[in-house]
Amino acid sequence: MESTPQKLEMFYEGKAKKLYSTSDPDLVIAYFKDDATAFDGAKRGTIESKGAMNNRMSELFFTLLEKSGVKTHFVRRLSDREMLCKRLQIIPVETVVRNLVAGSMAKRLGREEGEPLPHPIVEYYYKSDALHDPMILGQHAIAFGWATAAELEQIDTLALKVDGILSKFLDQRGVTLVDFKLEFGRHHGEILLGDEICPDTCRFWDKATRQKLDKDRFRRDLGGVEEAYHEMLRRVES
Ligand code: C5P
How many Å lie between the centroid of ligand 1 and the Cα of residue 201? Predict the structure, then answer.
């Protein structure tokens, strides 16, 4: 096992994670919290063991993606709640991929949740709490210098590749990947997939029953939140 760099000061605290710099300037440690927020922090709570479950699930998904040729910031899991990652200069654009209509798309366009899309749709959102993460066009990201046209092209290709890999993997475990959000960043000039991939950032539906196995249980007060996260982890680990 490679030596682990020393954990230094916390330089960022988000809604679900804290980031620490390390003795290696190229590496950071992500600490996964149990805190859960929805609707821009208007709804707050905790989901017991969420941090540990999301850390482990992200490890499994990042490992799967790396094996399939998608470069990510993941280095290795250090403990229940800590992950060693490559330091990224985060691109302030959230990329959402949708396979079925749900969530904000259903609301914005007046469509039924669960309507299948003829092909996956990639959307961009500007990462800004103050503006409530507004949906943007790729042209906005280019015009305001958040990403170059070449980077966006790469992000689009990577997002669809991730969708294909995860959809197939989850389908084999009886889960429909409805939609998900990705974040990308730059590391020594390369675009890497960052953040986490877990029930906080994806919609997972049981294929047979359509039961929700993700954060919508918390957002919509459906109950059984911890159980859904445990069930998803069990399936991804199987
Ligand atoms: O809310 P909406 O339908 O736009 O969300 C699409 C997908 O992106 C969902 O899987 C949701 O969990 C994820 N998402 C996220 N972080 C946000 C917005 C959406 O992880 N800030």
Answer: 6
